[in-house]
Amino acid sequence: MSSENQSELDILLQQLLDLTLNFTDELNTKASEDMEYFVNERQDLVQQLRLIMDVQKMDDLQKEELKRILTYDDMIQERMLSVKNEAQEWLLQRNLAKTQRNIYENKYATESYLMDKRK
Q1: Global pTM exceeds 0.85
Q2: For 119, what's the count of Cα atoms within 13 Å in the CB-facing half-sphere?
């Protein structure tokens, strides 16, 4: 077991934990841009972990640390689903308003004439 790989695993797990804790702090106020950043950063760390784990297995402490990090996933997924539903509702309301607006807008042909008859 290489101590260099061991410390790389520990460093990556710590970075993953820090990223997760920073994201879950005030989770209910996170915007979709924050979520996108979090997902991209997390994916980079996970890919690095996988590369190291091809050469090195995790010890029991590292496995426990990873399990601890993963306990936040349900909370994160719930918030992401909530933001998705909010965006979906906003789009539905916008499309409904657009449809209603189009109904009341007068659409006249540009070549049509309005003729009044005199009595």
Answers
A1: no
A2: 0
Report which of 12, 49, 19 is spatially closest to residue 34, judged by C-alpha positions: 19
Find the length of the chain: 119
Can you tell me the distance from the alpha carbon of 40 to that of 81, in angstroms, rounded to the nearest whole number?
17
Contact 69, 19 (CB under 8 A): no
Render the burial of 62-72: b for 16+ CB within 10 Å, e for the rest. Answer: beebeeebeee
Query: How far apart, in Å, are the Cα atoms of 103 and each of 81, 98, 113?
Result: 33, 9, 22
Give the mean pLDDT per block of 10 residues along the chain (119 residues).
Answer: 71 96 91 92 96 90 95 94 91 85 63 64
- Assess contact for 23 and 38: CB atoms under 8 A: yes
